[in-house]
User: What shape does this take?
Amino acid sequence: MVDLSSLPRCRLPSGKEVSIVDVLRFFYDFNETDVLVLLKIFSSGSITLEELAKETHMSKASVSRSISKLHSLGFVSREKIIDKVSKGRPRYIYKVDREGALKRILENVEMCSNVAKSVFEKILLSKQ
Assistant: This one.
């Protein structure tokens, strides 16, 4: 499992250090579980709910909640597993489009930066 504390951090001008979890929490309201699940799907290429729960040592319910959030935000896609033997709920395999996810994150960071720049310029450079 990915140790989030080992990931690079960024020191802000205030001296506070922020992690990738902080950035994703800010932009997408992710929690640590969401980030762990997303990174595990990244590293696996494709994986089932059961495999994710086992490999992350989390309950299927916790992993399922994170997958639902990641799916609703467009970070994770799913494909139904066709199993003619098994009855009951459908099973899915989860995947992440790495390039698409990176593009989305970078676009959102840039958009937020541009909005902040525009607002600060308007406030700080306007004549009163």
